Amino acid sequence: MFLAITFGAIWAAGAAVWLGGGDVQGDAAAPILMLAMYTPTLGALLTALMSGELRRPGDLLRRTGVRSSRPFPRVAGYTVAGLLLAPLLAVAALGVSSAAGGFVFHDPLPYGSLAGVLASQLLIFPLGMVLTFGEEFGWSYLLPKLLPLGLWRGLLISGVVWGVFHAPFTLQGYHYPGMPGGLAVLAFTVASVLLGALLGWLRLAAGSIWPAVVAHGAANLIASALPAVLGKPTSAAFHTSLSGWPGWVVMAAALAVLIVTGQFRKLTV
């Protein structure tokens, strides 16, 4: 039921962009994309209403991590980690891309411009969190229902759902301009599985949705702004971005470190 509502709503949003001219990067599409980020919340709330879960809103807020029973310092620590995670991974991905010849860093690095971009992105970060909450509430409703299948199966399925969820816009060139639609959806789904596992770790380790909301916002706003200020790509986005293959490499490495250090053991909602 959750998937049917969520995917039906996101495809309706994708159709609205297509009928409006198909310029998914244009200003006219921006309000539709912002509203579309709340389709997982719509799916969660309608499913909770029909299943009776909404009769106990306090329990629903606890299960989705909006309310956390964990100590505040623990939640705050993971929230800070979420803020730093995506930007650090994005810089590492640019390093991998540079080593492969896909990106050239400015020499010297423009630290003044970098500080200005970071400051401007942090100013609009509260709005970014409002938007990413729309997605994360839905995924935080879904993930606990998948965990009985096993932690890694749950994270994998959730990541695939997240990646395919973006298909109406990815097919229109949103993430990888110029790439064939089917390959673009596959590429973004791989990225979503990897980043989704990291966000899932933040969500479950903190017992709160907020570190994942912040990390998602940092990926959308801060990480995406770094390539333009740090250097110049010499190839397509797939070869330079966090959602491209360099990002896959660094996210897989980050997951490997977390696994080896035991960070995924005994994770619970």
Automatic annotation (TrEMBL):
Residue ranges constituting the CAAX prenyl protease 2/Lysostaphin resistance protein A-like domain according to the UniProt record: 122-222
Swiss-Prot/TrEMBL keywords: Hydrolase, Membrane, Metalloprotease, Protease, Transmembrane, Transmembrane helix
Organism superkingdom: Bacteria
GO molecular function: metallopeptidase activity
Pfam family, one: Rce1-like
Transmembrane segments: 32-54, 75-105, 111-134, 146-169, 181-202, 209-230, 245-264
InterPro entries in alphabetical order: MmRce1-like (IPR042150), Rce1/LyrA-like_dom (IPR003675)
Name of the protein in its database record: CPBP family intramembrane metalloprotease
Source species of the chain: Nonomuraea rosea
